[in-house]
Amino acid sequence: MENTEAIKTELLAEIAKAETSKALEEIRVSALGKKGKITELMKGLGALSAEEKKEAGKTLNVLKNDVEKALEEKKVSLEVAEMKQKLEAERVDVTLPIRPEKQGRIHPVSQIYEEVVAIFGQMGFEVAEGPDIEDQFHNFNALNTPANHPARQMQDTFYIPNPDSTDFDDSYVVRTQTSSVQIRTMEAQRPPIRIIAPGRTYRSDYDATHTPMFHQVEGLVIDKNITMAHLKGCLYDFVKAFFELDELPVRYRPSYFPFTEPSAEMDIGCKKTKTELKIGAGDSWLEILGCGMVHPNVLRAGGIDPDEYQGFAFGVGMDRLAMLKYGIPDLRMFFDSDIRWLKHYGFVPLDHASMTGGLSNNGGSAR
Ligand code: DAH
Hints:
With about 375 residues, the protein is α+β, with helices and mostly antiparallel strands. It has helices at about 5-15, 20-30, 35-45, 50-90, 110-120, 135-140, 180-190, 230-245, 295-300, 320-325, 340-345; strands at about 125, 135, 160, 170-175, 195-200, 215-225, 250-255, 260-270, 275-280, 285-295, 310-315. It has 2 domains: about 5-90; about 110-345, Bira Bifunctional Protein, Domain 2 (BirA Bifunctional Protein, domain 2, 2-Layer Sandwich), CATH 3.30.930. Helices cover about 40% and strands about 20% of the residues. Helix 1 packs parallel to helix 4 (about 50-90) and helix 2 (about 20-30) packs antiparallel against helix 4. The site of 3,4-dihydroxyphenylalanine has 11 residues, from strand 10 and strand 11.
């Protein structure tokens, strides 16, 4: 039997000298691996007499345990040292300024979304949501637009087959308007209701001001004694806050929507020249949103008694708001994922829209 003390001294010295986990692993294999020094010695035990085996086995076990222990201790200390070194090498200085070429941008629609939520949030509105894939009840019927109603032709609807029914009336739609969230909210909540519902909407349409997917924000207020005066005051405050103007002429034109009675469209004053559109004073008008008093049939469909409660509602195109406020000419580019467009029209991150900190003060690298 070889001198186990010598082997131990030699191995422990090697272990102590090891500078990396890899070197340490090589030492472990050389001692305890399949063909390792200690393993070979253990294999040799078979050739010894019972008496010798007992003695030598004990010695070898002690040797093995000592080496394993030394390996383990060294492993831990190497790992700690290596982690320290890694942390040192990969240190990130969070106080360094951002490299502008690496900085992302907030999409104008996200910016508008935040601005709209900030304005209505301060007025006490909550944000409500509904699904993009709707049934016809919520998108049309409950909004006083039954099948074959002529107003269905106002919207080029994408229908989705219902796997459980061949009846066309049962097919789903990708919602054509956020007005569906009016019904979903009435179903889930009792008055008083004061919500906005920003979100995606879909229609089969494509040109410079229409894309198959676009964004609307719906508004709904229901309470006792709500009148058209509340609607006018609320929307007037909204457009002034949104366009960040102290004075902004507005007018309401009679209009038609199946879910409101009376219905109106709101225009804001502007000045149009050949090259410029300036919102504010001027002799032209720009249509900005649709609105009206909630039709009694809609309240009934939502389970609300129209003799007790009244409400007003409105719907605004958010992409259109972005185009008007930030002077973006073509809607199609919004959804092309062109990084050059986003760099030009996008907003600086972490610069949140708020009523106290400013809606868009540092936004829009275009300005
Ligand atoms: N849903 C209408 C549309 O998509 C917009 C609208 C008009 C919504 C009047 C309303 C409203 O809530 O009262 O054209």
